[in-house]
Amino acid sequence: AAVLHGGAGVTSEAMMHGVPVITSGILLMDQRYWGRRLEDLGMGSEPVPINKLLSDNGLLCRLLDQALSGATDGWGAKAEEIRRKLAAESGSDHVGDGVRTNADAIMQCAPGQDTPGAIVGDAFQDPSSPARCFCAQCLCCV
Predict the structure, then answer these.
(1) Which of 27, 60, 114, 115 is most solvent-facing, going by the fewest CB within 10 Å?
(2) Rg (CA), the chain
(3) Are the beta carbons of 118 and 110 closer than 8 angstroms?
(4) Residue 42: how many other CB atoms lie within 10 Å
């Protein structure tokens, strides 16, 4: 398990290697989004602001226990399932650059999306969409 800030690079590397993630930090911009994606995919916690993680006595230990549990439906099992899926899509058991794969494949795992990358892609279709995307990111940690 890893405690990460939720940036696209570290998130995709965790996915490429089947590592369950606790997303925490100051959670700027896309960090909230990627934290939510990991939670939606079942391989990590909801994004937790660093001040909450540090002030809530025992929260980090509880999250680590959850991340490291051997449950067949737990974060670790889901992280390994996603790693296998991404490896299969690349045609190799070893997947290369997580950032490239993130751009190419992660959004294809999006539940309820008709089009790969729809959430991120839609943010750039018209001038008002980036603001809506930013507002949605802000709501992730409220």
Answers:
(1) 114
(2) 15
(3) yes
(4) 16
- Tokens, residue 25: 């930090």
Give the span between the Cα atoms of 46 and 60, in whole angstroms. 12
Q: Which residue has the higher pLDDT, 89 or 68?
A: 68
For the stretch 29-79, pLDDT in tens is 888 899 999 999 999 999 999 999 999 999 999 999 999 988 888 999 999
Say how far apart CA 58 and CA 77 lie, in whole Å.
24
Q: What is the pLDDT of residues 128-137, one digit of tens each?
A: 545 555 555 5
Report CA-CA distances (Å) from 129 to 40, 119, 120: 22, 10, 10
What's the pLDDT at 73? 86
Distances 84 to 1, 17, 89, 96 between C-alpha atoms, Å: 17, 9, 9, 13
Residue count (the chain): 142
Q: What are phi and psi of 25, to 5 degrees?
A: 145, -155
Question: What is the phi-psi region of residue 107: left when phi exceeds 0, alpha when psi lies from -120 to 50, beta otherwise?
Answer: alpha
